[in-house]
Amino acid sequence: MVIKKTRTSKKTRTSFGVRYGFRLRKKYAAVKEKTKSNVCIVCGHNKVKRVSLGIWLCKKCGAKFAGKAYTTQ
Ligand SMILES: [Zn+2]
Hints:
Structural class: alpha+beta
Bound molecules: zinc ion
CATH topology of the domain at 38-73: N-terminal domain of TfIIb
Strand content: 15-25%
Shape: elongated
Number of helices: 1
Low-confidence stretches: none
Number of strands: 3
Helix content: 10-25%
């Protein structure tokens, strides 16, 4: 008996997102979408990165400031 190999996707995941559950994935996508529009409160550039929970670092001006968990404001 020959067992056919099932097609496996070779797409590598770039981030550790939610994998299972439609609702969770939907929520994660919404949060992820929000983080894209985060702007620095000092210079206004869209170059902020989250250092820790609620702590944001601007790559443009180097400002470190407190914000919300997933958004800067
Ligand atoms: Zn800045």
